[in-house]
């Protein structure tokens, strides 16, 4: 793996010990990589959604996974052993709900456009200093003295900022084309090719955006014009009123539609440029194929969905079930009688293709929803005295008579796996989010018995022992509180079997004779110190899986929550890295109470535990030379243990 240099602020005072240039190679390759190799770890991913990346100056409100700032983050990730970043869904967001899991499947998120890049020659300087200095100064987020919290995105400001900036960029682009600017002409050639390849999608999405603004909502079901509610279906039938309405909208809002197409082009171009950058540096983005569809996707593809039914989860919501209010693919339209894909099947195929094209790997969100989804009748939702009334109708689709031919059972085999093969992705490498209530569903039969697919081992609720090495393992996901915050504030965690000091001490000290005293002291320490218990859980994380994920909040030692799963909280989806995230990380490590992850320290615990396990398993197999085996193993591993010690202390050093 290529290791890149990490830039630091010039002339800025440094109060924490950073790795020096002559130490980085030894740290990354000779120490971390050797530990990973010994533990059998092939993939290490940071869970950090696109908006969580730090912003540059000026601050337009939201971070981007495709900006220059993201490349600096990737450099830091790579230095500390990560070779993947798990993103969230990257589609266009709704102002009414900024959850990335309610974003559009196909349209790009314009808030991820790196506006600073538009001031470069390759983007024809369409936001050049001369043309845009005044605009940029107006758009930059202004923080009042008592509101200077750069750890949160300002989505609502960002929507306004990008709307203004991209309109200005488009106008400048058109002027430069007319003036025969060579860079603009080259950019326009790319733009025209993009429009040609995406014309059908762009006009439909653009019309939805126009109508959403007209009605003040993306919920097309409440639009008071039946023609607009069903415009695309009526156009297919050559309805005269729909044709007249279409002509009117495309004429009146021509500029809006053009700006939308242009913004999608810029977002797509930057996404592909960044993908090439990652390929050159052997780093992967794991895209997130959300299980649902947005209001825009639903309006465009109404004939693909089951009327009156919505997707959810049977538990974890305010009234019991989680009611996600996302559409459900019509099982009767997944496949045609001849086995080819129906309209719903084609839509699902396009969705996974998009996710695989955007990223270098993919996370399959809520795999149960692709096999036997929990659905509810949207017309039966009635709250009486703070509870769902008896009229509420819900259940897995296989139990409700909505999928009599059991077509959902075929999605994995006939759509998902073939798409992965087309994109040369081994299904065992994908991140399959299989956490769900599987009881009384087709899930185990299809997912586990028939296809033997990997899943998630989430140590927030589980023990590592006995879990499949094929699984991606993590302590907490994007829906979790940081581990230390969880342990400090939630009583159930401290008493949970997955967090028991006796279990963790025993699992990390297999040699009950030679390391008995060390084990007992370790058990006492983690029972009385939550930070040490968190370190033990992360050491456990590195023990039983080839593929590891770590939340950015845990890695950087944040005590804030990115998303409270299943709860509507104003701060949800807004947490991001501050501009000085690198300084903050090293300062945290060198503090008296470090909460950021010191990977050498954690890996040493895991390596010693694996040495124990290797020795005990060798001994239990009846080998007569077990003691000699142990001594040879100690001799072999001591240089690595010494280097782990060395870098553990380096990262803790204070440097003035």
UniProtKB/TrEMBL annotation:
Keywords: Carbohydrate metabolism, Glycosyltransferase, Transferase. It is an enzyme of class 2 (transferase). It comes from the Bacteria. Its EC number is 2.4.1.25. It catalyses: Transfers a segment of a (1->4)-alpha-D-glucan to a new position in an acceptor, which may be glucose or a (1->4)-alpha-D-glucan. InterPro entries: GH (IPR017853), Glyco_hydro_77 (IPR003385). The keyword Zinc-finger does not apply. GO terms for biological process: carbohydrate metabolic process. One of its GO terms (molecular function) is 4-alpha-glucanotransferase activity. Coiled coil: none annotated. Pfam families: Glyco_hydro_77. Belongs to the disproportionating enzyme family. This is 4-alpha-glucanotransferase. It comes from Candidatus Scatousia excrementigallinarum.
